[in-house]
Every structure is written in structure tokens, then in C-alpha cells.
Amino acid sequence: MGGLAPNLCSMEQASLQLPTVTPPVAPDRPRLVGRARLLAGLGLGWHVIEAVIAVAAGLAAGSIALVGFGADSVVEGGAGIIVLWRFSGRHSASERAERRAQKLIGVSFFVIAGYITVEATRTLVGGDHPDASWIGIGLAAVTLVTMPPLASAKARVGQQLGSSATHSEGRQNLLCAYLSAGLLVGLGLNALVGWWWADPAAALLIAGVAVREGREAWRGESCQDCC
User: Fold this and answer.
1) Is the Cα dihedral 156, 35, 54, 120 positive or negative?
2) pTM of the model
3) With contact defined as beta carbons under 8 Å apart, do 210 and 110 qualify?
4) Residue of 33, 73, 38 lying closest to 150 (CA atoms)
5) What angle is formed at CA 47 by the lines to CA 43 and CA 50, rounded to 5 degrees?
6) Residue 156: CB partners within 8 Å, gap ≥ 6?
7) Using N-to-C axis directions, what is the helix angle for 64-86 and 164-193, rounded to 10°?
8) For 5-49, how does the pLDDT look when each residue is reduced to its tens digit (9 = 90+)?
9) CA 140 to CA 173: how far, in whole Å?
């Protein structure tokens, strides 16, 4: 009986021990990190070009919407820099860096929403009638075609890496596509039928979407299927 008690004790201790849960590790993580950096770099390069063209065309046509589109491109380029930092050196495996990057991208969504709201309201209240900008129309059309595939690629890599920051940046590219669609409609209606108010009206709707995306990115809800 004396030998039975220690055995029962050891069996009871073993039964109380919970199995160790190992977090899922993405297969071929170095390749995925390299792909995340490549996609962020491609997006950053495009946003630099987009910002220069949009601001120049906006100033030439007196279009606040186009200038605002260029400012949005600057903010999105900043989000790309955040992702590049997130996957640089020792940060690539850091959960703290992931959370910080995620919050910074959330803030960038709020910056976009704030800027769009201010500029769209100023345009509507001031009744500004910008000149037709065919360069702006062409830029919006190209952006509308190129941003969704880039956003989709970033979403896939973000899910494989379990990175909400990468996933959120991809959603920001998708927001850019929505904004370019609104810009295309607004510039087109202004050029063809003189409906100058269409662009700022669409921009206000997109600002609402940006606020929602910013909240989700801040809370870490933008990549619920990543883990």
C-alpha cells in the first residue's frame, strides 16, 4: 500500500498536466517574409509615382480631390515602409514589432479618413469647380486595375505568416482601389457633364470605410483567419 500511494500521486500529477500547445509556424517562413517585403516594396514604389502624378495633375486642374488622392498615396507609402520595418532583421520574428506595426497601420487609416473628410467637405462647402483632368482620369483607371491584385497577394501572405500588419496593409491597398473608383467617377462626371460634387460625395463614403478598417487594424481584427 505504501508503494501504491506514490504511484497514485504521480498518476494524478500527470493527469493534471495540460498538453503544450505550440503556435502554428508558417512553412517556409523566410520565403514568405521575402515575399511580404517584395510586395510592400512594389506598393511603396507605385505610391511614390502615384503621389507625384496626382499632386501635379491636381494642382494643374485645381482639383482638391486629386491632390487629396496624392496625399492618400503618401500615407499608404508610409504603411508600406512600416511593413518593410516589421520584417527587417530581428523584427521579422517579433510579436511586439507585429503589434506595433499593426497599430501604426491602424493610425494611418485614420489619417486617410481625416484628410479625405476635410478635403471633401471643403470642396462641397466651397463649391469648387475644378477643370477636367484626363491625366487624373487615366491615373485613377490604372490604380483601379492594379491595386486589387496587390491587395489580394498581400492578404494571402499575411494569412500564411499570421501577420495582421501585412493583411491590414493589403486592405489599405484595396481602399486605394475604392478611392480611385470614386475619383474616376467624380472626375469623369465633372469632365463629361459638369457634376463637380460627385467626387467629394463618393470620397466621404470611402472615409467611412477607412475609419472602420482603422478600428479593425488597431484591435487586430483585420486578420482573424491568420492563426
Assistant:
1) positive
2) 0.69
3) yes
4) 38
5) 140
6) none
7) 170
8) 555 455 445 444 434 433 445 458 778 888 888 888 898 999 999
9) 13
| Angle subtended at Cα 204 by Cα 203 and Cα 206, rounded to the nearest 5 degrees | 65
pLDDT classification of 207: cutoffs 50, 70, 90: confident
- Which three cell numbers, joined as nine digits, stand for 181? 473608383
SS3 204: helix
Termini Cα distance of the chain? 49
Give whole-number Cα distances, 5 to 2, 9, 16, in Å: 6, 6, 17
Closest Cα to residue 45, out of 181, 173, 177, 178? 173
- Name the H helices within the chain: 4-16, 29-61, 64-86, 95-126, 134-161, 164-193, 198-219
Q: How many CB atoms lie within 10 A of CB 99?
A: 14
Domains, in order of start, for the chain:
30-219 (1.20.1510)
